[in-house]
Amino acid sequence: MPRRTRADMTEDTRARLIAVARLAFGTRGYARTSMDEFTAEAGLTRGALYHHFGDKQGLLAAVVEQIDAEMDARLQAISADAQEPWQGFRDRCRGYLAMAREAEYQRVVLQDARAVLGGAMPGAQLQCVASLRAIVDQLIVAGVVAPLDAQAVARLIHGSLTEASFWIAEGDDGDARLVQALAALELMLQGLRAPSRDEPAPTG
């Protein structure tokens, strides 16, 4: 058996702590968990947690980063699986909102991370905006979306989806809010469509 390197052991320690914390945050919430609980379940010391994450907030940030990366991969797959680009864009936006009703994502990212860390991770936000911009760029080139600034559109869409997700997650009537948000999303997205040749160009 090959000898494990220090890098392997470091990654293993981080992965164990993140896995334990992710389960605890997702099932009980940030406020009802403790660092002693995490280290005991992972078979590690408090020193290991401090060394790799600084504190409990740092561990939450690492969990959020992992969940965000998985969410982005799922959204990318939604876009890739669509039969045509506009449908992929629309389904991606709808999928983003639907995730606000998933228990782990709702509790860890939309509730605890917002309360403890002040919102989504900056890196995840930039990645999501960049992904949206690439899709919008393609749609503009294809003549599907009106010739607007792709960065502006991506920022607007991302901001709207993020705020709607927070709104869906914070209410007891989350299912009803999701339906309402999806209806509003459809209207907003249709406003981005380029007019067909038979339609007059928008003015003003």
Automatic annotation (TrEMBL):
Name of the protein in question: TetR/AcrR family transcriptional regulator
Pfam annotation, one family: TetR_C_41
Domain HTH tetR-type: 11-71
Gene3D superfamilies: Tetracycline Repressor, domain 2 (1.10.357.10)
Keyword set, alphabetical order: DNA-binding
DNA-binding region: 34-53
Entry-linked InterPro entries: Homeodomain-like_sf, HTH-type_TetR-like_transc_reg, HTH_TetR, Rv0078-like_C
